[in-house]
Every structure is written in structure tokens, then in C-alpha cells.
Amino acid sequence: MQTVLFGILEEGFVYAILSLGVYITYKILDFPDLSVDGTYPLGAAVTAALIVSGVNPYIALVISFFAGIAAGFLTGVIHVKLGVRDLLSGIIVSLGLFSVNLKIAGKANLAFFSEETIFTSVASIGTFGTVILLIALVIVCKLLLDFYLNTKSGYLLRATGSNDKLVTALGKDKGSVRILGLALANGFAAFAGAIMCQKQGYFDVGMGTGTMVIGLANVIIGTQLLKKMSFIKATTAVIIGSVIYRACVAFAINLGAPAEDLKLITAILFLVILVISDSKSIFRKKLSNKSGKVMKNA
Fold this sequence. Notes:
298 residues, mainly alpha, 2% strand, 2 strands, globular
């Protein structure tokens, strides 16, 4: 039981960092950014190549973060400057990154089990040490994102997603703000990929498949379940949603579902979450309409 719990927390916290990036694109910018499926393994490819070359694992994390920022910046430029639709921009970058990741790592699978990683220093404490380190990384990412969203640039980012005309009225370029948001979001995605890569001890070119769906599911679970709790920040809700989602997947596997069905379980869970979320929205809308008619007739 303890092993399962630690497994849920470990993967939940890694994907929580990815979900913070998806939160920026999905909730703030309203941008369906599929480039996340490419930037997540990009972070892993960069960190694997650097660690094999003898670079400090923490420095490898930072470089991976900036690699993700560069990829997100490219997505933004393709969308804003070249006029390509948002969905297609992400697909183009994700597709291109598949080849880029192969070139960076040198091959489809790159293992470095004997090399030092960020988890080496806590190996003596065991799994508990790994969880503590991941919690620390998640908290740092959350606090940095919260701090940024409360700056002038962060307010402009939020305004761009909800009312871009206001940004234009303020004399700011909404396109540049959108590019910045995409860069930051993909930086988080690459950072999460780099952490997962060091945790597993290897890079795999296919590890990014479905990460956008997982991140989106985490965001929807957290924001929907905890939206009535106004004292909980959205970024905190996203982190909690990530842990809940991993718990649901672990529960399904423990019931006897084969490990190779993980992607299928992910798809089904995501579908259920979307249906429930949409059903609640439709119910509230109908209830609001009925209340309005009652008041009007009264």
C-alpha cells in the first residue's frame, strides 16, 4: 500500500509541473497547445544528453527549462507572426520536435542509470526522500508562477486570454503577450520531462505521447472539484488534480487492468471528466434559464 501511495505522489507531482504549464495555455490563454507533446520529451532529451556528457543534473534541469521556452516561443511565433491557427501551430512544433529530440539524444532510447541525478543525493532516504524532493520542486514552480501572475506582465497575460481588446486598449501587443505565455507554459512542460527522465534514469522518444491530454485532465479535475473553495488558488487546485488523477489511474491498474492499457485508461478517464464537466455546465445553464423565466413570470 505504501509503495502504491508513494508511486501516486511521485508521478502526480511530476505531472503537476506539466499541468501548471497546461493551465497557462488552457485556462489563461484559451490556447489548445499540442506542442506540449513535443516539449515534454524535449526536456528529457536535453537533460539525458547533458547528464551523459557529465553536466550537473540541476544545471541540466535549468537548461531543459529554457529549451522548452524556446520551443514554446517558436509555437507562438508560428501562430502570431505567421498567422497559422493555434491547433496547427502546436502540431507543427510537436511534429518537428520528434526529430529534434532524436538528434539531441542521439537515439530513440538513452539510459544513464549509473550517472548522478538530482535524486542521487536523497537515495539514502529511499522513496520518502524522492517524494520530499519532488514536493520541493513543485512548490518552487507553483510559487514562481503565482509570483509571475501577480506582476504587470502576468496581469496582461490573464487579460489576453479573457479580454484581448483590453490589452490592445492599454497599448500593449497581445501577440507578444501570447508568445510569452506559450514560452513559459512549454518551459514548465520541458522541466517536468527533465525531472521524469532523471527519475526513470533514461530518455525515450515516445514518452511525450498523450502528455497534453494528461495535463488537461489534471487541470480540469483540480479546477472543477475545488472551484467552490475560493481560498484555494487555481495553481494549487491543479497540483491536487494531478495527484487525484494519478490515484484514479493507479486504482484502475490495481483492479486488474494491464499496464499496457494505461493510455486507454487515460483516454477513458479524460472522456468521463469532460462529460461530467460539460454536463454540469449545461445543467447550470438550464437552471439559470428556468430561474430567469420564473422571475419574469412572477
